[in-house]
Design brief:
Structural class: alpha+beta
Strand content: 15-25%
CATH superfamily of the largest domain: Histidine kinase-like ATPase, C-terminal domain
CATH architecture of the largest domain: 2-Layer Sandwich
CATH class of the largest domain: Alpha Beta
Distance between the termini: 135 Å
Order of helices and strands: HEEHHHEEEHHEHHEEHEEHEEHH
Radius of gyration: 41 Å
């Protein structure tokens, strides 16, 4: 006990050391508590930041998917190129028009890809296979407004081009039609007199006299000219349609019977496919038979060495004509149509056949127009031709009996055949 109290200074120092240690421990504990709270606070902030980042990434991914969907859904072909003109992205429409996949387009130069298909950046119409396109190029800029590449847009203007062609054709035909009608009537009158006198001359001449043969040739030539004029008048006359529902199978069967004379001349495999959804057609049966016969004859003559002839009837989407419609398709595996002739197919007197007069397809076009329908032709040289007739089939017109209108038409196969004879049998080539 005496030793403990003998060093009060040491005791004081020891007590001071313990107090300093307690204070340091307390301070350290407070700092640790504050640090722990700060760490927990930072963990919460980091969790919030991570959640916000995750949501942003999810939104960005959803936006990317949406933009990709929009890009792929566009009917306009889109090709994205960088500052050097190297392709970095393309959509499905561009791949279809250019005939290359996205992988084949990437890292290639835009002018080289276009030149491969004989194309260039231009607003003028350019053909790619069966399609007509205009190609434009616009600069691509980033958020700062700086140039970061370009977009090449391939706009499919096939339908617009077809409508412009139809409008131009109608203008030409309107002027030509008035002249044709007047000439046909003026020529037909003296032809009747020539035919009459040629017939009288044949009657008066002996059967063995050479002059009688000349009179017969005059009569035959007059009849050919009269047939041509009849075609002209058939093309020019106003069309008054008495449409009704006609059984589709009967209509096609009778039409094929009328075209049998052409089918027998060559080895052609015929296939007829009628959709159960189209039991009947709303039309003028005699005139539609003329259309079918002429298209079938054209198809057969486009296959001089034989081939396959397909005739099909199917429902057509509502948006094609803005109403319910049916599609009648005549398909052949023949020589195809020269692209240089496509714009003149329906012009009167245009033909590439030595014996043709160029009126058959003009009359077909007139009949389809009178039905408020549409005719589309797709062809590739050496691969064949597909001719599609789209006819409106108005809902509510049918009275429940597909064949109920046949009596109102009052037209049998023989009467239809007499009209069909007037049609020109010309091939596409």
């Amino acid at each position: 006990m005496t030793g403990v109290t003998a060093n009060p200074e040491e005791r004081a120092l020891l007590e001071a050391a313990f107090r300093s240690f307690d204070e340091a421990a307390h301070t350290l504990q407070q700092s640790y508590g504050a640090l722990t709270a700060r760490v927990e606070e930072m963990d919460a902030e980091l969790a919030q930041s991570n959640e916000a980042l995750r949501r942003q990434l999810a939104d960005n991914e959803a936006m990317r998917v949406r933009l990709d969907g929009i890009l792929e859904s566009l009917s306009t072909g889109v090709v994205v190129a960088d500052e050097s003109g190297i392709i970095t992205r393309s959509n499905r429409a561009a791949e279809h028009l250019l005939g290359l996949s996205d992988g084949e387009l990437r890292n290639r130069c835009v002018p080289d890809v276009l030149a491969r298909r004989g194309l260039t950046v231009s607003d003028r119409p350019q053909r790619i296979g069966q399609s007509v396109v205009s190609i434009s190029q616009v600069p691509l800029r980033n958020d700062s407004g700086e140039h970061s590449g370009s977009l090449v847009l391939l706009q499919d203007i096939t339908r617009i081009y077809q409508l412009e062609e139809q409008l131009q054709r109608k203008d030409r035909l309107a002027a030509m039609g008035e002249l044709i009608g007047r000439i046909a009537h003026e020529i037909r009158n003296p032809l009747g007199s020539v035919e009459l006198f040629a017939s009288l001359l044949q009657r008066d001449l002996d059967e063995h006299q050479p002059m009688r043969r000349y009179a017969q040739q005059i009569s035959q030539a007059v009849q050919l000219m009269d047939g041509l004029l009849a075609n002209l008048l058939l093309y020019m006359r106003p069309v008054h349609l008495a449409r009704a529902w006609h059984n589709a199978e009967s209509l096609l069967t009778e039409s094929m019977e009328l075209a049998a004379h052409a089918i027998r001349k060559t080895s052609v495999e015929v296939r007829i496919d009628i959709s159960p959804e189209v039991p009947s057609i709303w039309c003028h049966d005699g005139q539609v038979k003329q259309v079918i016969v002429n298209l079938v004859v054209n198809a057969v003559q486009a296959m001089p060495n034989g081939g396959k002839l397909g005739i099909s009837l199917s429902p057509e989407p509502f948006q094609t004509l803005g109403t319910s419609a049916v599609r009648l398709t005549v398909r052949d595996s023949g020589v195809g149509i020269d692209p240089a002739h496509r714009s003149r197919l329906f012009d009167p007197f245009f033909t590439t056949k030595d014996e043709g007069t160029g009126l058959g397809l003009a009359i077909v076009h007139s009949i389809v127009e009178a039905h408020h329908g549409r005719i589309d032709i797709e062809s590739a040289v050496g691969q064949g031709t597909v001719c599609s007739i789209i006819l409106p089939s108005p809902p509510g017109a049918e009275d429940g009996s597909p064949g109920s209108g046949r009596g109102r038409e009052a037209r049998d196969v023989k009467a239809a055949a007499r009209e069909v004879v007037l049609m020109e049998e010309s091939s596409y080539d």
